[in-house]
Amino acid sequence: MKIQSYVNGEWCSGDGRTDTLVNSVNDEVIGEVVSLTSGFDQILAHGRKAGGSALRKMTTHERAEKIKFLAKYLLDRKDDFYRVSYMTGATKADSWVDIEGGIGTMFSYSGIARRELNNDTFVVEGNVEPLSAGGTFVGQHILTAKEGVSLHINAFNFPVWGMLEKITPSLIAGVPVIVKPGTVTCYLTEIVVKAMIESQIFPEGSIQLICGSVGDILDHLNEQDVVTFTGSASTGRRLKAHPNIIEKSIPFTMEADSLNCCILAPDVTVDSPEFDLYIKEVAREMTTKAGQKCTAIRRAIVPNNLIDPVSEALMKRLQSTSLGDPQAEGVRMGALVGKSQREDVIAAVEQLGQSSEIILNGMQGFVPIGVESGKGAFMAPTLLHCKDPLNITTPHDVEAFGPVSTLMGYDGIDQAIELAKMGKGSLAGSVFTASRDNARDIILGTASHHGRMLVIDSTCAKESTGHGSPLAPLIHGGPGRAGGGEELGGARAIKHYMQRSAIQGSPMSLMAVTNQYVKGAELKEDRVHPFRKYFEELEIGESLLTHRRTVTEADIVNFGCLSGDHFYAHFDEIAAKDSFFEKRVAHGYFVISAAAGLFVDPGLGPVIANYGIDNLRFVEPVGIGDTIQVRLTCKRKVKKSKKPDDKYHTGVVIWDVEVKNQNDEAVAIYDILTLVERQSDD
Ligand code: NDP
After folding, report:
1. Is 255 a residue of the active site?
2. What CATH number is attached to the domain comprising 672?
3. How far apart are the C-alpha atoms of 509 and 584, rounded to whole Å?
């Protein structure tokens, strides 16, 4: 079988380097990849021209919707992916992380984008910045999709998740992708891409796949392209230093190997629940994916007085891990992805073994379940003990990318922190402790060297997502040795593929660019109340100035009785005189309730519901006898897609609300969100 690439709208093979791909469980040949040797400039051009221009016409929400449809499409075909995933040596649990974890990331991002980004072809970021005393010159950041492609050079260990976690933010940003999977497991990536192309959910050119070598593609990248890399630090450094990448300042996100640590804090004893949790987590991280995880625990940092009980408990647990064919009954740990990877791991263990004692040797003397003798790329868990970790640097430098970890002892929290930092930058670190002080000291002492950290105690362990799981809303990446990159982390991952520009000008110009009301821009008033208008009929900048209302003592008394809020500033004449306000004032919540009474049009109409309030500030007090008036202005509109159970087609309208007093001073400012009916369907 030929594993193919999908480029320029067709599936094809090249005439270059041939890689034979082998089932890592039984050594059977799966197929071969013949690398492309030329035409990389056309592949990039196809992505930019066909994919990029089609993607940039859609809004962020439309692209996010497509990601959701694609995720559903892939989920329906997951059984096909699992079948192939076993050939990589992954167990069902490992494959779940790769396949359903990857698809889950797509669902998460689809939601994040629709919740947090405006529904336009570009993104408006942050607040309008006042830049002049008279308010006629203001600034605002916007982000537009880069007009290039994003090239994702991925590692072999997560052929599905590794692709999906990167292409999802890029496609939502409006940037087409070219995926280059690690060759040894690219047959799994290929069948997932086949399903994506077959779905026709994204326009042609949005998704391309290059299996095998990427030839001279880096020479043809331009200033609008982006590269992400996951793999070894040495390859990453080499690619990052490519002359074309440097010359054109092409963003290069690198996620490289790291020596992640897991610290058992000094408050824990063998009888504490955190002791057992620690043993379970270290063993789980060593055996999941046969330890081929960028976030796996490589350094188990333990108080010196607990080294013996920890090593005994850990060895017992690791020895009971059943190793073998991932599809055989009872197997908990599968194979490494290939024999050459196993050779690399063994070489790394031998290097580590020169300065640490191998206390559990998984390189020999085991019989994998359901596997013919001598077949497959198996290796059992291997545990080392470094007796002088503050002076021996090898366990902090050498990563054995397999089921391998090194125990190291410490005396006192300062030493634990020093050891953690000797990794020179990691993707993930964890602390097992029931002491809040230890948690704070260790996290604050080591966070500068980590992209993500967990504190595990008995109250959160059951629901914890674990040391090694990157999650869509949280940063994945780490400083220094870990590559210095950031992936995931919510909407910021989408923005990575966009250009942020500061736009300065008059409120009117900014409003024209961003399609959002900017204070100081011209207002449009109409005889028809805005609450009587359908979503489509409302214009940005459309505004209503209400009638006025004088606040009386009766208002304060009534509101206090209704709400039960009898705070002295509203009810105690003497205390109020001594207070900050020097008089009795109305409740802030009365002011916004009274404001609603002023701006609402009460009759049945297209406004369906009050959705909430954002950015509320009470700017000035409202006293007895003050007169308030409200300006309500249509600030932003977000069209919502109708779900099957929804009664109406709707959109959310965000209104700028300003409540002023008789002196034209703002007393309260905020945004209200209303759900408004649409006349047109999707
Ligand atoms: P590599 O760094 O060798 O390869 C990573 C990716 O880069 C692969 O897709 C590889 O393709 C590609 N690549 C290699 N050379 C070039 C080149 N000259 N131009 C363009 N692309 C290139 O890492 P491996 O995948 O072999 O893994 C080795 C080590 O990486 C592991 O032992 C581990 O230490 C680390 N690693 C880190 C991970 C992380 O998430 N941080 C994940 C996985 C591995 P090809 O496969 O065709 O060589």
Report:
1. yes
2. 3.10.129.10
3. 43
